[in-house]
Structures are given as C-alpha cells and as structure tokens.
Amino acid sequence: MAVVIKLNTIEQWEELKKDIIPHDELLIFKFSPVCPISSRVEDYLNTWLSELPEDYKLKCAKVDVIEAKEVSLKIAADLNIEHESPQAIWLTGDLKVKWYGSHYDINKNKLKANLNKA
Fold it and tell me: Which CATH number goes with the domain that contains 26?
C-alpha cells in the first residue's frame, strides 16, 4: 500500500511540494470526518491504494477539511481548483493537475484509469 501522509499545516504542504520529484505523483484526498459520503469515498480510496502495484511511485496525502481548513483552502488556491469535500486531486511530479474529482466521481474505476494515463 502507498504511504499516506496526513497534512495538518501549510508548512507540511509546502514541504511536500518540495519533496515531489519529477518521477513521483501525488494524490491528495480532502475529506470531512463528519460526512458519510467522505467516509464511503475514503473506503474506496483505501481499498484502491492497498491494491496499487508496489513499483508505482504515488504519494498520497490526506487533509481533514475541518481540522486543517487552512491547508485545504491553501491547496485549492495553489492549484486553482475550487475546494470541495470529499475531493481527490492527482498531481504529476511537476505539480500539474492530472485529474481531480469530488464525491462519487472518486471511485476505483476513475483512479485506475488515471493510474494508467501517461
């Protein structure tokens, strides 16, 4: 399973951006711990991550939109993507948005399709 990093501060977000190298990708999952849709989508994501090939270089970061609201809003501003929850944002190694989706658009089929995208 891919390593999942919990982002709580803007400083952690800034450090993570520096750590992404051209051959890595980053999947950010923003969620609300009180939302049943977030919980269901997080289950989909966790299952998919557990089935991810070990040689695929994908980092995953989770952001609690209530606990770390400032981080969530900073990510949205930095990437010029409207904030939603639950939300998945897939970045290339050069921090370009490869794909993003929210709510039930985040599922194993969409994740798998984007895994195979060049």
Answer: 3.40.30.10
